[in-house]
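Minutes, project huddle
Topic: does the predicted pose make sense with copper (II) ion bound?
PN asked that the exact inputs be recorded in the minutes so nobody has to dig through chat later. Recorded below.
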Amino acid sequence: MLKRLFTVIPAVALGFMIYADTAMAEMVEMRSKPWQLFFQQPMSPTAEQVYDLNVFLLWIEVVITLFVLGIMAYIMVKFNAKANPTPSKTTHNTFLEVIWTAVPILILVVIAVPSLKVLYFADRTQDYEMTVKVKGNQWFWSYEYPDHGDIAFDSIIIPDDELKKGQPRLLSVDNPVVLPANTNIRLLLTSNDVIHNWAVPSLAIKLDTTPGRVNETWTHINAPGDYYGMCSELCGVNHGFMPIHIRALPKDEFQKWLVKAKEQFASNDNKEQEDGPVRVAQAGTAK
Ligand SMILES: [Cu+2]
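Predicted holo structure (C-alpha cells), as shared on screen:
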C-alpha cells in the first residue's frame, strides 16, 4: 500500500508538470492558474532549487505524519481502557528520552544543510552580465538599466476597462520590465517611500524593497515569456494594484528592444527622483 502511494503521488505530480509543459510553446506565461494547487513551474536555477527543496521537505513531512499517525493508532488500540484495564506506572525511560531528543535534532540538521545551501545560492552571483534596478513606489514599480544608457521607466497597472485581449487582470502593466532570457541578471532593489516587496513566484524571488537600503539578488530566466508577480508587502491602499510583469526576450530581441527603449524612455533620465511626490498623487487617483 505504502509502496503504491510512493509511486502514485510522483506520477500525479509528473502528470501536472507535463500538463504545464504543453502550455509553454515559444513564449511561456508564468502566473497562477485557476485551481492550481502546487507551485508555479520553476523557471530559474534558484526556483528549481527551491522547488526541489520543497519536494524534499514534503517527503520528510509525509514520513513524520505517517509515523505519528501509526503510533497514535497503535496506542488507541492497544492501550484503551478495555484492552488495558490496569495501566503501567512507568514514568522514565532513558533510552527513549535520548532517542526522542536526538532524532528531531538530526531531522532539523538534515533540513538545515540544504536550506542554507539554497539561501546562499539565491543571495547573489559573482558573474552577472547586467544589472537592473528595481524601485518600489506607492503604488507602482520603476525600473532602471544602469548598464544600458540609463534607461528608466515606470510600470503602472492597466485598469480593468483598458485591458486588451489576453492581458491578465490585475497583473498587466503599461511598461513591462524587459529582460533577456538565459542571462545572469543582478537585481538591486530599493524603495522611494515605504517597504514594498518584489515577488515573482516562478523565479522564486520575494525580496523586500526598503527605503534607504539596497537589497541584492539575482536571476537567470530559463525561457522567453511573460512572468507575473505582485507586491508582497502591505504598502498602502493600492498595494493590490502594483503588479510585476517581466517580459523575457531572447538575447538578440532584447538588444533590439534596448535600441527602441533608449529613444522611448530617454526623457525619463534623471527626472525620476524629483518627480516623486507628483507621481504619488497620480498613482493614487489612477486606480
Ligand atoms: Cu507595494
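Observations noted during the meeting:
- The domain at 28-89+124-287 is CATH 2.60.40.420 (Immunoglobulin-like).
- The chain has a mean pLDDT of 87.
No decisions taken; revisit at the next huddle.
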